[in-house]
Design a protein that fits this description.
Helix content is 36%, strand content 19%. It is an alpha+beta fold and 431 residues long. It has an 8-stranded mixed sheet with strand order 1-5-6-11-10-9-7-8, with helices on both faces. Strands 13-12-14-15-16 form a 5-stranded mixed sheet, sandwiched between helices. A 3-stranded antiparallel sheet has the order 2-4-3. It is an enzyme of class 6 (ligase).
Length: 431
């Protein structure tokens, strides 16, 4: 016997019935995006490594230690499994000249990859939904995107999700703050952990996002970026707040909210929950006005967010909000294999009429007795059994037997004509 192979740790199979919850969530997202005028874009899973080094920043955790990168054996090109979605969308927008006939609202869904220790809600292959608005400069689109996420939580019924916002200003303002922050932290180097010491001169802003309890008092006393913002940056932030207030969207200003990628400027935001332990961020984003130029395009503003699908599903499960797994309307019980040529056209007609039918199958050796077929029919969750017995078929009929009390329009076993399947299909669909 060949050795049994397993999936890579932290890269999980998603099979039925769990996959039905993924499909349900994806359908909710697609409908919401359509209502807001966002259109789908699909980008490659593999991108040039330089895209993420240039876009995310060389000294970010993602680039330094989390990316799955490799050399293409054919031409020596350095490639990377995408660790996030925004950079690839921007690369596609630039390469395909998508915004030069006007701004675009786009969304994506798909797997991302980061080499890190797998834990609850955090995997090496994880899935994101992202929304990107490219070519829009004002805070109105920032507010629109936040509202869109809030609408998704409401539609899903999710509670215990709070919005935090901040402004990172513009690069020159961040440089002034960076100098003051480094000077402050240098005075307290004895209180810095190893990670903070490593970031002190390369990416000091990320130190403010530390989860180390021993450093909380230190970072609370650090210089606030908000104090270094100029008039235009403050006006953008105030505009965002006014638009959120107008929509009744509650938020908290978190001056320590910095995000993990270098491409952000002005508005940044996160939706957080206390229900998932340390993995509390379920959706995050902000404005990235410089990224399009960084990847070779004509400078243009942009804003976007991404949510973690696994974390949203985990939160839905935690709050008891996952829907029931879909079951077929009917289960076809076929006692004789020889009857299949007569049975299968009827089932196909029912399916074409919108009835979901699971057919018992297995060939002559694994077909099973009537008793075993009825057991499987009951286990399928179907509302009805379609019984294609010898006597029924001889009369050109099928017996429809209810399997659940109080569910469906047919309340007792009834005979229907095979030739008129599309006419009685509607009764099988009725709840």
């Amino acid at each position: 016997m060949a050795e049994k192979l397993s999936a890579v740790k932290g890269m999980n199979d998603i099979a039925a019935p769990e996959s039905a919850h993924w499909e349900w969530l994806e359908a909710k997202v697609r409908a919401l995006m359509g209502r807001y005028g966002y259109r789908n874009i699909r980008t490659p899973i593999v991108e040039p490594t330089a895209l993420f080094v240039r876009g995310l920043g060389e000294v970010t955790d993602i680039v330094e230690k989390e990316m799955y990168s490799f050399e293409d054996r054919l031409n020596g090109e350095q490639l990377t499994l995408r660790p996030e979605g925004t950079a690839g969308v921007v690369r596609a927008v630039v390469e395909q000249n998508l915004i030069y006939d006007g701004p675009k609202r786009l969304y994506y869904m798909g797997p991302m990859f980061r080499h890190e220790r797998p834990q609850r809600g955090r995997y090496r292959q994880f899935h994101q939904v992202g929304a990107e608005a490219l070519g829009f400069a004002g805070p109105d689109v920032d507010a629109e995107q936040i509202a869109m996420a809030c609408d998704l939580w409401a539609e899903l019924g999710l509670k215990d999700i709070a919005l935090e916002i901040n402004s990172l200003g513009q690069p020159a303002e961040r440089q002034q703050h960076r100098a003051a922050l480094i000077a402050y932290l240098e005075q307290h180097q004895d209180q810095l952990d190893e990670d903070a010491k490593r970031r002190l001169y390369s990416n000091p802003l990320r130190i403010l996002d530390t989860k180390n309890p021993a450093m909380q008092a230190l970072v609370e006393g650090a210089p606030k970026l908000m104090d270094y913002l100029g008039e235009q940056s403050l006006a953008h932030f105030d505009g965002l707040r006014a638009l959120l207030d107008a929509q009744g969207i509650a938020y908290r200003i978190n001056p320590r909210l910095v995000r993990g990628m270098d491409y952000y400027n002005l508005s940044v935001f996160e939706f957080v929950t206390t229900a998932l332990g340390s993995q509390g961020t379920v959706c995050a984003g902000g404005r990235y006005d410089g990224l399009i130029a960084q990847v070779g395009g004509k400078p243009a503003p942009a804003v976007g967010w991404a949510l973690g699908v696994e974390r949203i599903l985990e939160l839905l499960k935690e709050q008891g909000l996952l829907p029931a797994v879909p079951v077929p309307d009917c289960y076809a019980v076929v006692p004789q294999v020889a009857a299949m040529p007569q049975v299968m056209p009827v089932l196909r007609a029912l399916r074409a009429a919108g009835v979901s039918v699971q057919m018992h199958a297995g060939g002559s050796e694994g077909h099973g007795s009537m008793k075993s077929q009825f057991k499987k029919a009951d286990g399928s969750g179907a509302r009805y059994a379609l019984i294609f017995g010898e006597s029924e078929l001889a009369a050109g009929q099928v017996a429809v037997k209810p399997l659940r009390e109080g569910v469906g329009a047919i309340t007792e076993q009834t005979l229907f004509e095979l030739a008129q399947a599309t006419q009685w299909a509607a009764q099988l669909r009725q709840a």
